[in-house]
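Entry: MmgE/PrpD family protein
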Amino acid sequence: MTRTIQDTHFTAQIASQACQRQWESMPADACERVAQCLLDWFGVALRGSTEPVAAILRQEAMLDGGNGVASIVGHPGKMTVLQAALVNGAASHALDFDDVHIHVGHPAVAILPALLALAEARGADGRSLAVAYLAGYEAACLVGAAIGEAHYDRGFHTTATIGIVGAAVACARLMALPEDGMRRAIGLAATQAAGLKVMFGTMAKPFHAGRAARDGLHAARLSAAGLSANASVLDGEYGFLSLLGDGTGRLPAVADGPLELRNNLFKYHAACYLTHAAIDAARRIAASPGYRACDIDSVIIAARASIDSVCNITAPTTGLEMKFSIRYAVAMALGGLDTGSPEAYADDQVAVVAALPFLPRVRVALNEKLPLTYSHVDVRLKSGQVISDSSDSNRPAIDLAGQRERLVAKFHGLAANHLDESRRRRFVAAVLSLEQCEDVGKLFRLIQP
């Protein structure tokens, strides 16, 4: 069942659902899924803490001083909760290796840094964290579904513009705000929403995630303090959905809908998610019997036209830009190069990929009718043979145990330069038994230098 965006109760219904979430009513698989999101987030945040964007924001925060009550991943000492949300949010998105939801972009990097900073400061337990994260995640997905693809296609970065609402809802739920307070938090978040796709390939993209976390947390705190805001900000002719969408969207049913957390997608290539389908197709082609990269005559990558403003940088000059080049990503896969580690996208690797003999003959064919997460790759060999494959990266895992194993391995790879194996194992065990955690701050203490 759907309704038009001119209805006036969507904000209220989202707030009501978020406030009603309780540990006792969480689906059986939900805590495991939250724990997996948390493990993945800590891994990318820890490795991302060494990236320049994280260092710049830490240095800037130190200039402001403040009462340190919230941890900074990968670094000793503490900062204010708002500073920690900003710094950890940017660090966790610096690699572009964090999880994805088709309606939100990158939910964890917008929601978890805010929620963890607040939870640590309040001494919250793992169950409270899981309930609050689910509330924020599901709220963000509802808003993202309602605003529709037009919002992203017009150039808005949904991790920032939708993620901020998820962060506000999650923090408001952890603070146990009543429904009117939750609605104010949503209003204060929505009125701050900002982030443009034109920043992709620069440090401003992970900065978006940090700002979404910081500002969403701030919205919840200001609501708790009594700052007023429009309590129906998402609704009506001049509401968030009408102004930032195309004005023709329809609202998803809030009550009794499927759990969107089950549609969460994790990354195993350290590049923009919209390159992943093409990478997977290219890797299967490269594994074909008798395939040799030296035999490639030409390559055609078919992808949705809207990726042109996301991940179609033709000739990247930095490793960060290379993460947003579907052409280079496919060339890496076809050339037998690693696509799954952050080091594969270091600045000095740009020249390595550029030197692949077949790269000048790799072409991207844009097609508006293709699904956003779908790609088709044709490789023509010098013999005239064509090897083809296609993939759609919007395929959530069904096997939770198998996904857990992959995420544990990913965490060990990301954290290896920061923690010895014994500490990594203790941390993984603590995160994956989240419901038994009596103090979320313990998780930070397990990994801090």
